[in-house]
Amino acid sequence: MLGLMFRVSIFGESHGRGIGSLIEGCPPGVPVSEELLREKLRLRHPNTDLFTSRREEDEPEILSGVFNGRSTGAPIAIFIRNRDLDSSSYEIFRHVPRPSHADYVASVKYMGFNDYRGGGIFSGRITAGIVAAGAVAGSLLSKFGISVMAHVIRIGRAVVERELSPDEVRRAYESPVRCADSNVSMKMVEEIRRAREEGDSIGGEAEVMATGVPVGLGDPPIDTLDGDIAKAIFMIPGVKGVEFGAGFRLSSMRGSEANDPFVLRDGRVETEGNKSGGINGGISNGMPIRIRVAFRPTPSISIPQRSVDLREMKPVILRAMGRFDACIVPRAIPALEAVVSIVLADHLLRWASWMWISRG
Amino acid sequence: MLGLMFRVSIFGESHGRGIGSLIEGCPPGVPVSEELLREKLRLRHPNTDLFTSRREEDEPEILSGVFNGRSTGAPIAIFIRNRDLDSSSYEIFRHVPRPSHADYVASVKYMGFNDYRGGGIFSGRITAGIVAAGAVAGSLLSKFGISVMAHVIRIGRAVVERELSPDEVRRAYESPVRCADSNVSMKMVEEIRRAREEGDSIGGEAEVMATGVPVGLGDPPIDTLDGDIAKAIFMIPGVKGVEFGAGFRLSSMRGSEANDPFVLRDGRVETEGNKSGGINGGISNGMPIRIRVAFRPTPSISIPQRSVDLREMKPVILRAMGRFDACIVPRAIPALEAVVSIVLADHLLRWASWMWISRG
Amino acid sequence: MLGLMFRVSIFGESHGRGIGSLIEGCPPGVPVSEELLREKLRLRHPNTDLFTSRREEDEPEILSGVFNGRSTGAPIAIFIRNRDLDSSSYEIFRHVPRPSHADYVASVKYMGFNDYRGGGIFSGRITAGIVAAGAVAGSLLSKFGISVMAHVIRIGRAVVERELSPDEVRRAYESPVRCADSNVSMKMVEEIRRAREEGDSIGGEAEVMATGVPVGLGDPPIDTLDGDIAKAIFMIPGVKGVEFGAGFRLSSMRGSEANDPFVLRDGRVETEGNKSGGINGGISNGMPIRIRVAFRPTPSISIPQRSVDLREMKPVILRAMGRFDACIVPRAIPALEAVVSIVLADHLLRWASWMWISRG
Amino acid sequence: MLGLMFRVSIFGESHGRGIGSLIEGCPPGVPVSEELLREKLRLRHPNTDLFTSRREEDEPEILSGVFNGRSTGAPIAIFIRNRDLDSSSYEIFRHVPRPSHADYVASVKYMGFNDYRGGGIFSGRITAGIVAAGAVAGSLLSKFGISVMAHVIRIGRAVVERELSPDEVRRAYESPVRCADSNVSMKMVEEIRRAREEGDSIGGEAEVMATGVPVGLGDPPIDTLDGDIAKAIFMIPGVKGVEFGAGFRLSSMRGSEANDPFVLRDGRVETEGNKSGGINGGISNGMPIRIRVAFRPTPSISIPQRSVDLREMKPVILRAMGRFDACIVPRAIPALEAVVSIVLADHLLRWASWMWISRG
Q1: Total count of domains within chain A
Q2: What sign does the CA torsion over A207, A213, A215, A217 have?
Q3: Which one of A238, B42, D129, D266 has the fewest beta carbons within 10 angstroms of its own beta carbon?
């Protein structure tokens, strides 16, 4: 389950009737509209020929919980209908699983009943449901001045070396690969293009940032803010690592180097530097939350690979055909913003309860 | 909340009455005893003068849910009583928070009511409760041939470069720093000793491994196995990053390099290589699960640091005094094993339900 | 939340886009089809002019989680689109709430943002989503020989005095008021007709029965089977009381009279009599589960009533106009079967996990 | 699970080490002390020879989450240690279950591993943990002017016919059977005494009342306030029915009789009469919440009963010996207050979140 007070479920399959999400616990009065959802869903489709975006635009329908442009307090169901799709190229993966893809584990876990077409629930397509739910969370957060934004900081060997400011990051959607540094953006395009030409795929890294988060979000000892964010991020296909602030680099640092000294700025307690990434002890400290996420290269490649035919239990060479993205990171950016928004909305509601109780 | 079918709560403070955990949903018949818990808790105290271990041994008491050496099916409560401790050195941190420690966020979030003594719920001491609960989970897992083991792979610049086998990792507890490579172990000791002498602290990395996990654990789209493991790991103080398999290194790889080809071994489907770390699409694939965890240097150092006096709202220089570990990674090893065991036990129970339904 | 392993959410409003439900945790391989759902939904509309059934048939659409007529193991979303409806007669209730209806509490709780049209989420219409989810639960239960059936045992003063057998109860749908005793059925029709003619409404009682339930379902101390069933039943509009077995009558009995002696029948342990209603200590005992449910008369009546105009804060006389049922009990019968089926499916999955663990 | 924001778990067995509870999510600053808990636990032991109260007083120990007399915001664990007890008389019930007791279902469900001594988790003793947690909830509620009180309204044929005011109910603890009407109280004492003399037991009814509850508590469509209260009440051993307001009597009423007209009192919207029992549509309406609870006679009686020897699978006559209460209702009164307090505290916290969000 995702969330305690702001609870999100997602449903749907890549080549089934569609993709959706259900939000329970959203307070009444939050501005929500199909236009808002459509706008966010559009961000999943960069305006470039680098990716295999489905041609038509996603048409989200709000099935419940919104009335006169505002959340009602009742469960909000959202549905995005799929167009008719050709699933024939996936038939083979039922029995000859793609290496490092979910084909194999799905057929075992679901005992052959899973909807394998288009990757079923393991397709990047399911992030449409996440993005729709995230749009509602984002609308709630914006009432409290909280912004969540993500961008791509690595594709293969093309890397953004410097730390970008929130204002720079906000412009990442102008880049076809969602990289806010225009020089690196061009190199990333090249990395993807080359991988694609070779029938291969390529991994990458993204950064998510949240500004305006008040001090005090997170519920240790179990529901830490970083833990809940990490769990939510792993919902996104292809994620293999999550770190906060200086993350893995902290493991070779001394405390004197890693600690962020407290300072006063305009009468507010802040820190100089932000190696903690805005979270201490599982609780937000008021500084921008900074998260880095590692994505593996998409496992679907047309280069021949060794696999196993599960019916005959013998080794085979698989050459996957189909419309696969050579890199999923740019298209995952809105999903990253969405899951972090959802977790922040949940913890904001939890925090709000204690605030009211302490003052009420 | 931690777990759905095997649910663990933890409670207690560093200098309060004690530390404990509550396990709900443990099936009946699992061997559990205070001796087993004591043995696991002992692993939190390496036999070395590098760490500040409390002198007496932890004495776990099973308060409920165990009868004649077996779990009964009822909630299992475990309590480890604290000895009388001197909390005077912590008085200062209420108003002059240690940089990058939870002192500040705790005082804001809990509105001054938190038990700040010894770091309260933010102390590494809380991992005693986690370890106790993990021992119960481990006992359940062992009935199904599942083993979880962790070891330290980096302290500062001392790094284990090669991949160790499960059998090697199992011997990590012989090292005072829980590093299974004896050469690197000595360098790690040096890293810690030097940091301590300079009044500083030092970070590190650990690896967790789980073998014998059947194919099919994990419940996407939300409760992915990697997501649930990541969340649980963030309960451990000092964690700043989690990755699976080749993790962040996958972000600069091509798919052809990152994919683990399927092969047949003794009639079973396995993969050659394990860059996926035993998980695809949020579901275990039968290969060893491999997780790497980044720990920050402990924020408590005696080197003077800039902080803020929260009563008078003015900048001050803090020089923290007290018994602080210069490195927390070795002592976190049993806690890492514990949280991963707990998550695996939970998903094993979830998986078992479907197995029974499909066959029953 | 409803359920732990078999989790059901419902959404939708009476006069919004439609009504639906989401099922998470349903194991793969369970037969589910739109035809099955349609059949169950039809039971909400007795073939009689006693009730205000919407003219067209409910057309359930399975949005996800079902493939080739079987559950896939992924979340199952179901949606039943509403037809265009005239909501004008409800405008008044926003400001002049119907006594004992949810109009007033909804406007306060949801701060005026609730979708009041047709009663919004408080309409009996929401039971369509419950019934759809219950059909999936029922399909799972039937694989294990578990049947759930309900019938009306009281409308006003018309009462079924004797205890009906499961076989008799199964025929209740032949009666327009879902009463399996044909004599009483006619009297019930009269009770409803008379109330309606007088612009009034009338209450009633229903009994739910579940047969084939194995010994051992229920998870005390908290998630008792009776407690979980009771909670689920209160989701149905108009419910004001729930009792198991002899229920409130037990409160004036002696133990020697109330106890069900254990006997052996065909080598199985059973009880003589079933005053416990199939549950002891929160756990099913293998006997038929018997539940009685009290329904209030629907609060919407056209007889003038005292209310308050909330805008002007002054007393007014309200005479509610609209298409209201004079009695909701017969139409609630499939919803009762559904919620009990859902709870049993959830506890069956929980129980199955322990069964597999103990044998595996 | 019990509660979402204010979550309570209970643990412990009748003849094990003790009984306890764990509260997660309690906001900081709530007054809690062992003296407060002791006082509430004392109410479980009426000052009379009618009941088999253990001789020594319950000594609650707060293991965590309270500091300087206030909740800290961290999990609160409470433990009440059992004295050494003689469990020999229970040995027989492992194999010869008491009719209508949990002996039989427990031995099947827990596969023989359950702690059967003293009834294990099915003993009325577990209500000590509930009462302790309820004391914390009550302390939180009292900050908001919410009071919860319960009393006995029926023992066998001795019945309180009139509706008592909250002020009268508050005096119920002066009666040895917790009945606020002193005439009926004496008759109840007689009912119990007579049943006991005959080696029998007797059932009863209790009423719970909550005053000061704001409009808006409850989260339909699933987590209705009445549903959550009902579920919690079924945690108490012996409960077989729950009704709100006029409850089952509403089933024979007309709407015109059952509805509570809205009226203005001192500028506030109230209702005349309270047949709804303070809840409409699953949400509190600001009137006193009124709940009636049916308790079965305790199944442990010394009158010979038919049972089955589970080892030899043959019928036997059981004559239960041991210290059994002839009536459990008076001793359940503080537990009833506790569970209702816990549910109200949880929904208060959920409601508070939306209040803060709407104003913040």
Answers
A1: 1
A2: negative
A3: D266
